[in-house]
Amino acid sequence: MEFRRIEYFLVLAQELSFVRAAGRLCITPQALTKQISLLEDELGAKLFDRTTRSVKLTRTGMKCVQKFSYLKSVYDDTLESVRQTISRETKLIKMGIFSPLPRNELVFPVLEAISDAFPNVELEIHADDMDSLKEGLYTGKYDLCITNAHDYQNWIGYDRVNFKVTPAQIVVSSNHKWVKQGKTQITEEDMAAESILLLEVNNAQEKDSFYRVVKTGERHYVRDFDTMLMMLNVGHSYAVFPPVFNDFVGSNVVTFPLPDRYAFNYRTMCACHKSNQKPEVLAIMDFLRKNRKQFQLS
User: Fold this and answer.
1) What is the pTM of this model?
2) 231-286 per-position pLDDT tens digit
3) Would you give the DSSP letter of residue 105?
4) Among 71, 108, 155, 243, which residue has the fewest nearby CB atoms (within 10 Å)?
5) How far apart are CA 47 and CA 31, in angstroms?
6) What's the rounded Cα separation, in Å, for the pair 168 and 150?
7) Can you spell out the DSSP letters for 119-186?
């Protein structure tokens, strides 16, 4: 039995006119007459007494109104419940985070704003290094990432929302000899005579990047930013990065501008790969673009 025939029957039972009922149902009176006849054949009983002047429910028809009205109510409630379930269906977005970024000032506010603006989106958060985040966007491991990117990196093919542009700076411990000597400017010669701390990923970065071409003493590679910061505090080496990281403020370090020949910038941003056309990803990027001033770092 087709459910539409039950709906047609209930409308006709209300109107008791094939013309008016057909008008409500947006079909012809002839089509309605055929569907009611098919319903009566399926039930094996007449539902209406029809004359050229009137349409009346039979005793069986009256009973069917009660039964079918309840069935229609259950049907409508079930359909609405399914629609609401679909509308509330959680959309999973995999987001990578460069963990050294300032959490209270940037990461947490961005995540909270996305969650508030997109209640149907579930954010799956993963911490990773900068190169792996970029690669993860390309391979589909991540839908979005909040990260840093320096001037030498090629981000063609990626959509980005910049929160802040920060010059890379020379970073040393407050016990470093440059600080004790009272230096306010570090020269290329100073850098060439001292050893540098580098993240292991810098070893694989673009050949023309600062980290590959800088003239320096020994190169010491560390696995992550936290290790780098600890080694800066206890050692005599220097590092080069933008001072926009979590736990940077209050740490035992001093920064200097790079010599002009080496100067370059980092961009703190949210990014996705342009091949990712998930509606939720595009909506989030548009939301961040429109509200990025809210998340700009001081």
Assistant:
1) 0.66
2) 888 878 999 999 887 656 556 889 999 999 999 999 999 999 999 999 999 999 99
3) I
4) 108
5) 17
6) 8
7) TTEEEEEEEE-HHHHHHHHHHTS-SEEEEEEETTS--TTEEEEEEEEEE-EEEEETTSHHHHTT-SS-
Q: How far apart are CA 222 and CA 1, in angstroms?
A: 72
Given this chain, do its domains 91-165+266-295 and 169-263 carry the same CATH topology? yes
57-97 pLDDT, tens digit each: 999 999 999 999 999 899 889 888 887 776 566 689 999 99
Domain 91-165+266-295 carries which CATH code?
3.40.190.10
Q: Sign (positive/negative) of CA torsion 268, 253, 240, 125?
A: negative
Query: For the domain 169-263, what is the CATH superfamily, name and number?
Result: Periplasmic binding protein-like II (3.40.190.10)
Enumerate residues 6+ apart whose C-beta is below 8 A from 245.
Answer: 100, 101, 102, 225, 229
